[in-house]
Design a protein that fits this description.
InterPro entries: Sbt_1. By secondary structure, the protein is an all-alpha fold. The protein is built from 16 helices and no strands. The radius of gyration is 18 Å and the shape is globular.
């Protein structure tokens, strides 16, 4: 069964398709975006505070590099499919970042299958949120500017609102740890899923309102949404094997590589690359890739991990 928050996305799509006057105030959307980016960063930082970083450094480095590299692999393919530069960069960023809900589903599937995985796997999710977004912004700027002003570009990448919130939350969580963040847990941790549901309702409204534009790019979007995840899963599984992870760990790494973000990336790209078609990326990431991974992909990735590690 789909996670309950996904139904909020579908409600938003249906509301737009049937012509409902449902709207979320622009100020509320902005507030939800800031909250989610900070909360995701904080949760990742708290996980960081629990781990001996020196021992985990190779895994963290590989996860960051994988997330950062995926958009550069996808971008030329998307341009070859005749998607515009901003759309290609935004879509590539969604696949460079990761889906927290897909991570939750694969870990539940591994538990049911009796396959242990590394207890710090949530750390991989935390460090794979931002790099793909950063490279997506980088690709968008490179495509748009005839002469790259590297100083301004670096400033935007490091200090733009979305990346600053993600990295800021990550650093605060890592420094404060579980005990230090306890006083704000009731605000930033406990209500996370409820806020996420509201955010997905807005994403559903955005996606539903642009379905006619998506139909124009229908075949490329469907092709990317279905074919990219298994190919990226093979890449992720290969990295997991090279790191010496357990079978469950390889399956998680493969799934993270195959997943596409529909929380951090839509927020970040809407802020950083507003000219990109948000419905295109959200429909591919949440409307095609997410259900594909849940129903078909995760069993395949677990099977791949078993085959590679046995």
């Amino acid at each position: 069964m789909l996670d309950v928050v996904v139904f909020f996305f579908l409600l938003g799509v249906i509301a737009r398709v049937v012509g409902s006057d449902l709207r979320l105030p622009e100020a509320l959307y902005e507030t939800l975006s800031i909250y989610l980016l900070l909360a995701i960063g904080l949760k990742g930082g708290i996980e960081l505070s629990k781990q001996p970083m020196a021992a985990l450094a190779p895994q963290v480095g590989a996860a960051i590099l994988l997330s950062f590299t995926i958009p550069f692999l996808l971008y030329p393919v998307l341009r070859a499919l005749r998607l515009a530069g901003p759309d290609s960069a935004s879509l590539a960023a969604h696949y460079g970042s990761v889906s927290v809900v897909t991570f939750a589903v694969v870990t539940a599937a591994l538990t049911r299958a009796g396959l242990p995985y590394e207890s710090h796997a949530a750390l991989w999710v935390a460090v794979m949120e931002a790099p793909g977004i950063v490279s997506g912004i980088l690709l968008a700027r490179l495509a748009k500017l005839q002469e790259v002003r590297w100083g301004a570009l670096l400033h935007e990448v490091l200090f733009g609102k979305s990346v600053l919130l993600l990295l800021g939350g990550l650093i605060i969580g890592a420094i404060a740890g579980v005990e230090g963040t306890a006083p704000i847990k009731a605000v930033f941790i406990d209500p996370f899923k409820g806020v996420l549901a509201l955010f997905l309702l807005e994403l559903g409204l955005v996606a539903g309102g642009r379905l006619s534009e998506v139909r124009r790019f229908g075949l490329p979007v469907v092709a990317v949404g279905v074919l990219a995840p298994p190919l990226l899963a093979v890449l992720g599984a290969g990295v997991g094997v090279a790191l010496g992870l357990s079978t469950g760990g390889v399956a998680v790494f493969a799934t993270l590589a195959a997943s596409a973000s529909y929380i951090a990336a839509p927020t970040a790209m809407r802020l950083a690359v507003p000219e990109a078609n948000a419905a295109l990326s959200i429909t591919a990431a949440l409307g095609i890739t997410f259900p594909f991974n849940i129903v078909v992909g995760i069993p395949l990735y677990i099977g791949l991990a078993r085959w590679l590690t046995q």
